[in-house]
């Protein structure tokens, strides 16, 4: 099953045939919003509004662990995160899509693991689902993130975007900042020197947690603004939301084609489903 996590400005997807709204509790609390079970072009899809439907969760307070755990519990294997980002790379223009392939993490206060050893929540489980056993046993886990995003899902997105003829970049380094404030011009200059292409506040720890559950995760970034200091003007949230609104139709269209391709892909030649192998201490 595929799940779509919608970011700023994407709180629901029109065209989804909503079947049910699921309220679910996890060992890490409740997700940001009820999870919508829907049908899209005849395929089952779950949709989750990352910041909540009323945007009540700022980036540093999004219940990332509850969100991903809930999706896993509901049978999800593939996750597509949609993210608004600022453009650091001068080649990027507002409205461009970027299928990021790496990240640099500058977040500060967010739990990045389900498996916190003796600090893990009490959880009783007897069965053979790996992630549940690791949590129940209060294990410590170090996953490999050399290639954080699923190459198969990224390839599917690339195919879809190429076919649609939209302007996009097939790779890019995502710089994750803590927020909720935007960046200083000096920070953006530094991120640029470090190789950052786009900047946002939510893809980390989302992708990390998805990997800890052995999910296939790809992030589709929409450049909503030139990053701080590059823009030459004061940045606003209105600009971000406005651009995401403008791109809504395109995103919908991309999702529709992606869904079909994802379910049509029988061979997943990636290591995403083995991430926990050899990772526990
Ligand atoms: N910085 C951080 N996050 C963002 C930006 C930005 O410029 N634009 C959209 N999300």
| Contiguous runs where pLDDT drops below 50 for at least 5 residues | none
Bound molecules: hypoxanthine
Give a short account of the largest sheet.
11 strands, mixed
Average pLDDT metric: 94
Give the helix tally. Answer: 6
Count the domains.
1
The H/E string reads EEEEHEEEHHEEHEHEH
The CATH architecture would be: 3-Layer(aba) Sandwich
Give the beta-strand count: 11
Termini Cα gap: 30 Å
Characterize the overall form.
Answer: globular
Classify the fold: give the CATH topology.
Rossmann fold
CATH class: Alpha Beta
| Percent range of helical residues | 25-40%
Fourth CATH level, the homologous superfamily? Nucleoside phosphorylase domain
The radius of gyration is 18 Å
Bin the strand percentage.
15-25%
Structural class: alpha/beta
Description:
This protein has helices at residues 64-73, 130-136, 151-164, 185-193, 203-212, 237-264; strands spanning 2-6, 17-22, 35-40, 43-49, 78-87, 97-99, 102-106, 168-169, 173-177, 198-200, 216-226. The protein has 281 residues and is an alpha/beta fold. The longest helix is centred in the C-terminal third of the chain and has 28 residues, at 237-264.
């Amino acid at each position: 099953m595929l799940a779509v996590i919608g970011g700023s400005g994407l709180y629901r997807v029109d065209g989804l045939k909503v079947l049910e709204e699921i309220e679910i509790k996890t060992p890490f609390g409740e997700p940001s919003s009820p999870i919508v079970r829907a049908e899209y072009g005849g395929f089952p899809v779950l949709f989750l509004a990352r910041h909540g439907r009323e945007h009540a969760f700022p980036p540093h307070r999004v219940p990332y662990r509850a969100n991903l755990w809930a999706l896993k519990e509901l049978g999800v294997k593939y996750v597509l995160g949609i993210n608004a980002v600022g453009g650091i790379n001068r080649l990027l223009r507002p409205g461009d899509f970027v299928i990021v392939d790496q990240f640099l993490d500058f977040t500060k206060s967010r739990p990045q693991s389900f498996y916190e050893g003796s600090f893990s929540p009490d959880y009783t489980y007897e069965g053979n689902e790996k992630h549940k056993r690791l949590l129940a046993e209060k294990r410590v886990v170090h996953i490999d993130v050399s290639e954080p995003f699923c190459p198969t899902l990224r390839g599917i997105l690339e195919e879809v975007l190429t076919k649609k003829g939209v302007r996009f970049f097939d790779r890019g380094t995502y710089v994750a900042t803590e927020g909720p404030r935007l960046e200083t011009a000096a920070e953006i200059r530094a991120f640029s020197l470090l190789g950052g292409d786009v900047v946002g506040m939510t893809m980390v720890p989302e992708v990390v947690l998805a990997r800890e559950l052995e999910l296939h995760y790809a992030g589709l970034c929409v450049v909503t603004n030139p990053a701080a200091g590059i823009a030459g003007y004061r940045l606003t949230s209105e600009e971000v939301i406005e651009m995401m609104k403008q791109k809504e139709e395109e995103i919908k269209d991309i999702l529709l084609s992606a869904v079909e391709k994802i379910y049509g892909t029988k061979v997943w030649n990636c290591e995403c489903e083995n991430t926990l192998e050899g990772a526990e201490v």
